Amino acid sequence: MNQTDAFLQMWRESRTRFSLLLNGINENQLRYTLEPSANSAGFLIRHIADVEKLFSKNVFGKADVKVVAKTVIDKKDTGEHTDLSFLLSYQNESSEDLASAIALQSDSDWSQTIETKEFGVKTKAEALGRITSHTAYHAGQLALILKYGK
C-alpha cells in the first residue's frame, strides 16, 4: 500500500466518529445546544463540512470544489442550520470532496509544505492530521450535544 492509500484509509476510518452520529438524527436535534455554548448541532455539522471543503480546495488543491464556508465567515451560530436534508447532503459532499482530494496526492506531495493564516506552515501530512483532528474534535462536541443538549 502506498502512503496516499494509507492516509486515505486512515482518514475515512477516523471520520466514522462523525458520520455514525448522523444515523437517526432528526431535524429537532439540529437546534440542540449544550449551555453555555451557543453552537447548535446543526451549526457543528455545517462547520465540519465547511472546513473539510476548505481543506479540499485550499490545502489539497482540488480547484473544482465549491465552498461558501458560512460558519467560518459568520464565526458564530446564527441559528439558520436547521435543514436536515441539506446538512446531510452537504456533509456527504464534503466527505467525498476531501476523499478525492486526498486520493489525488502523490506520495511525494505529503512532505510538501503549505501555509495558511489559520495554522501557519505545515506539511500536507500534518495538514491531514489537522483536518482529521478538527472533525473528531467537533464530532465529540456533537455527540455531547445530542446526548445532553436541549
Distance between the termini: 45 Å
Any guess at the CATH architecture? Up-down Bundle
Structural class: mainly alpha
Number of strands: 2
Mean pLDDT across every amino acid position: 96
Main sheet properties: 2 strands, antiparallel
Which shape, going by the Cα principal axes? Answer: globular
CATH class: Mainly Alpha
Q: Helix segment count?
A: 5
Strand order of the largest sheet: 1-2
CATH homology-level superfamily: dinb family like domain
Proportion of helical residues: 55-70%
Poorly predicted runs:
none
Question: Radius of gyration in whole Å, from Cα?
Answer: 15 Å
CATH topology: Four Helix Bundle (Hemerythrin (Met), subunit A)
Number of domains: 1
Could you explain the architecture of this structure?
The chain has 150 residues and is mostly helical. It has a single domain, classed as Four Helix Bundle (Hemerythrin (Met), subunit A), CATH 1.20.120. The chain has 5 helices and 2 strands. It has a two-stranded antiparallel ribbon. Helix 2 (41-59) packs parallel to helix 4. The N and C termini lie far apart (45 Å).
